[in-house]
Structure formats: structure tokens, C-alpha cells
Amino acid sequence: MDTLTRRRFLLTSGVVGAGALAAGAGAYSLRDLLDTSGDRDPQARTLVLVTLYGGNDGLNTVIPYGDPAYRAARPELAYPDGEVLRLDDDFGLNPALAGLHQRWSGGGLAIVRGVGYPKPDRSHFRSMDIWHTAQPDRPGNTGWLGRWLDSAGGDPRLAVSFEPALPPLLAGAQSAGAAVPVTERKAAKGLSAETLAALAAAQAGESAARSRAAACFADLRSVDEMIRQVRDAADPDTADPDGEQAPATATGGARTPLDAQLDLVAQCVEAGVSTRAFSVSLGGFDTHADEKQLQAVLLGQLDRALTGFADRMSRTEAGRKVVVAVYSEFGRRVRANASDGTDHGTASDVLLLGAGVRGGWHGAAPSLTDLDDGDLKFTTDFRDVYATLLERVLDTDPGPILADWRGRVDNLL
């Protein structure tokens, strides 16, 4: 780690491990990432981890429409056969996932089925702690990507979050990833474009501190402009009529739209920055009531963001080395509740896409009738997925990071 990076990290964190979670919230800018352009091995892969906060209903995402138990358990929530985007004679995608359905047809989407962990916890926060730390028995104070960061040298720019705060999964014992804020800042009314430009410009003879302040302000203006462009290009039917960003939900998720977060990831990948792992998120999936419409809106946002990002990445050599993994802290219960929603469940699917992903089914689908107190029994341990990503994407021995976990998802990458 260079001297500037080390000093900034130590000053902003003060402590390591769990206490480092607030470390990067304002300590790094997009410029800090772009300063590393050209520093990485051109053959190295990049991991983009997409967290769906709130517990996405996997059974109405990858739909077992061919199983009569599906419709029997949730007659009002079940999708009719004619609406499902068929993957085969038994399963199909939610109608809102048309872009991902096209990628499946082209072999670019992998679905790992029945992913979970032993003795599942149905608390949002406890289960997310388990997924972040990869320690189901007793979540510790370091995340699995934070431990990878420790092993990779500790430079926070190697693991970056474009979320409101650094997620626990990027906290290591000796270091933590960088949180780069991307939410829009609004200047006070009355400041002209010329004045704002002057504030962002370095002046001859000024101190190093003032020069740095000007550079940081320039970064903020640059990020604001990028986010504005992404928003202006978004589908007008999905925009907030008041032009405001939706707040993060109580169960987590970034304030910034997922497509804006992925736009910044794409720019970093195309610039060849040193970052090997990015964390982005979308919240709002805690669908206890009136689930069908809300989930369709959220899945539509996910679909547009992922397919737009994947299409963009397919155009460059660096982009074709990106692997995207999408997960949520748990699925929902098999049977619908009395409010046209679903309650906290257990196992669900992990979606992966990218040029290096071997598309198709991976793992066994859980039974809808052989249940654990009304919940799906997991068939793939999530550590199998993590170990595969560490080994095949981040070029790292998973043993020291995942407590010598030996499971893998065969032929995934």
C-alpha cells in the first residue's frame, strides 16, 4: 500500500475489523480509483457482487411453474404458465426478467439452485451477517472479501463499494475496502456554473490541503454529472415523478439506482483500475404484503441494470473478464401469507452472468413438498459459491479465507 493510501486509511478508520466499517465512507473518490488505471494484470478477472436486500422471493424469480405444488402453495401469487418466461419444461423466469431470459438463451446466465446454509436464520440482519462473513455457526467481525483483501495486500482500492456505507463483507482484520459515495450532492441556489468550476479548480501557490480540497470537489461534480446522465437516460416509466432518489430501505440497499452504481463499475473496468471486487446493491425486497407488483418493479430494475451492464462489458477485453454474482440474504416461505405476500424463508438461487460463466443450471432444485417447517431445504452451501469465486475469479486459495472449506460448484466458470 502506498504512503498516501495507508495514511488516509489509518486516519479515517482508527481501528480494524468491525470498527473499520465506517472507514471508507468519505475517504476515497472516483479519482483515487482512476489513479490506479493500468496497474492491474490484464488477464485478471473482476468480481461484481450484487446484493438484493430484504430477502428476494426466489420462487417468483426462478419460477417452478411445472410443479403443481407451486400453485397450490400460493394460488394468488403464482404466475400462470403463459406469463412465465420459460427456461425449460419445469422452470421459467419472472416476466420482468426479459433481458436475463435472452442471456439464458445465449448461454450467458447461470443459475445456482437451492443456495443456503445449515440452521438458517430468518432475521434480515443476522442472515446478512452470515452471508457477509461466510461464518454460519457464529458470524465474526470480518467479511469474506475483507479477509481476501488482507491476503491481497490490504490496499482498499482493490475492493470497492458504491453503496452508502461500507458493507461488512469488505471489512478485513487489518484493512477494509473503500466506500466511494455516488449519491448526488446539491449546491445552494444562486451559485453559478462559473463559481462551481472555480471552486473545483486548483490555484497557483495554494497549499497542498487546499489543492486536495479542490480536487475532491471536482470529483463530486464529476460523479454528480455521471449520475445525472445515467438518470436522464433511464426509462422514463420507472423514474420517480418528483425526480428524487428513493431512500435506502430499512433492511439495506443503496440510495443510488443500481444502474448508476453499475455505470461507475463499468467505467472503472474500462479504465483498467486495480479494483478486483466491487459491491453494489438494490433494496426493497421484504415483500410481506402485495408482493407481486412490487417485486416485478424491483426485478425490472434489476433486469435493466444487469443486462445493460453485461452488454457493455461484452464489448471490451477487460469487460469480458467480469463475473457478476447476484444473491439475497434468504428466500421466502413456500406458502403465501394472508396479505398477498410471503414471509422470511431460507434457500434461494444465486444468479451469475458474464462471458466467463458457464450458463445453465447448477445444483439441485429444492423440493416444494419435502420442507423444513414450511421452508425449502438448501441443496448448495453458499460457501461452495464463494470458494469457486475466490478460486476462479480472484485467483486465491479459498482455504485460509473460508476456514478450509472444500466445496465447489463444478463447471460454473
Can you walk through the features of this model?
The strands form two sheets. Strands 1, 5, 6, 7, 8, 9, 10, 11 and 12 form a nine-stranded mixed beta sheet that branches. This protein has a three-stranded antiparallel beta sheet with strand order 2-4-3. It starts with a helix and ends in a 21-residue tail after the last helix. It is globular and about 75 Å long. The chain has helices spanning 3-13, 30-34, 68-73, 98-105, 124-133, 144-151, 193-199, 208-233, 258-271, 291-313, 382-392, and strands at residues 46-52, 62-63, 85-86, 92-93, 109-116, 159-161, 178-179, 277-282, 322-328, 348-353, 360-362, 380-381. Helix 4 (98-105) crosses helix 10 and helix 8 (208-233) crosses helix 9. A hairpin with a 5-residue loop joins strand 3 and strand 4. The longest helix has 26 residues, at 208-233. Residues 1-26, 184-189 and 229-247 have low confidence and may be disordered. It is of the alpha/beta class and 413 residues long.
Present the secondary structure layout.
Blueprint: H1 3-13, H2 30-34, E1 46-52, E2 62-63, H3 68-73, E3 85-86, E4 92-93, H4 98-105, E5 109-116, H5 124-133, H6 144-151, E6 159-161, E7 178-179, H7 193-199, H8 208-233, H9 258-271, E8 277-282, H10 291-313, E9 322-328, E10 348-353, E11 360-362, E12 380-381, H11 382-392
Parallel strand pairs: 1-8, 1-9, 5-11, 5-12, 6-7, 6-8
Antiparallel strand pairs: 2-4, 3-4, 5-10, 9-10
Helix pairs in contact: 4-10, 8-9, 9-10
